[in-house]
Design goal:
Number of strands: 12
Helix content: 25-40%
CATH topology: Spore Coat Polysaccharide Biosynthesis Protein SpsA, Chain A
CATH architecture: Alpha-Beta Complex
Distance between the termini: 23 Å
Largest sheet: 5 strands, mixed
Shape: globular
Low-confidence stretches: none
Number of domains: 1
Strand content: 15-25%
Mean pLDDT: 92
């Protein structure tokens, strides 16, 4: 599943981030292809902007993804809602669900396969991740532009930068989203930034498998420049 209903304002004005061009195709197309390359993936559901379902469906059709079932549904106002709507479009018989950022267009297929293998081996939630190269400081946030007091320096060896696709047993993902929806209806909602965080919030166990440096997220203009360079190198070396 690829939630792609957001605009991605940090990449600058213009088209929604998922539809920005990368080497002749939108980021979203690359992200869907990244999932579709795995033999373990038989269906890819895209949660598109509610007013752009027909456009996204036409876009994916025009780029051709032979041998894979691609479905496009209307996403929601939040990523969490989009995942919930995308999950509803996946057949009940599906036992493993992957959730992948549209803004991670270059994730290698071996990362996708590793996530699936870990869920098949018994994990209820799996995230690919890479070690941090930089020292990290925990700070007390203050007004923009003001110096921020450092609270402590976490041990970098215990930290990982999380990527996608994240993998889940279907029943686990459905259960935590149902709980979050109930809390939301009652006037509250867990504050998390990914689906693995939702599993953690409700007491589930999440495990990490090795990610890849090329599975980075395209968030700012410089990321798009880097993605173009990686894609150009791939095409030059193996006809990607």
């Amino acid at each position: 599943m690829v939630p792609a209903a957001g605009r991605g304002e940090r990449l600058g004005p213009g088209a929604p981030k998922a539809l920005r061009d990368l080497g002749g195709a939108p980021l979203l197309v690359h992200a869907v292809r990244a999932l579709a390359r795995s033999r373990a993936v038989g269906l890819v559901v895209v949660a598109a902007p509610p007013q752009g379902v027909a456009e996204v469906l036409s876009l994916l059709d025009s780029h051709g993804l032979d041998g894979k079932d691609i479905r496009v549904v209307a996403g929601g106002a939040t990523r969490q809602e989009s995942v919930r709507l995308g999950l509803a479009a996946i057949p009940e018989s599906t036992e493993i669900v992957l959730v992948h950022d549209a803004a991670r267009p270059l994730v290698p297929v071996e990362v996708v396969d590793a996530v699936v293998a870990a869920v098949r081996a018994g994990a209820e939630a799996v995230v690919p991740a890479v070690p941090l190269a930089d020292t990290v400081k925990r700070v007390r946030p203050v007004a923009a532009g003001e110096p921020e007091p450092v609270l402590d320096t976490p041990d970098r060896a215990t930290l990982r930068a999380v990527q996608t696709p994240q993998g889940f047993r279907r029943e686990t993902l459905a259960e935590v989203h149902a709980k979050a929806l109930t809390e939301e209806a009652a006037g509250g909602s867990p504050v998390v930034t990914d689906d693995a965080g939702l599993v953690e919030y409700y007491g589930g166990r999440v495990v990490v498998v090795p990610g890849h440096e090329e599975a980075f997220k395209v968030t700012r203009p410089l990321d798009l420049v880097l993605a173009e360079a990686v894609l150009a190198r791939r095409r030059a070396s193996d006809g990607f």
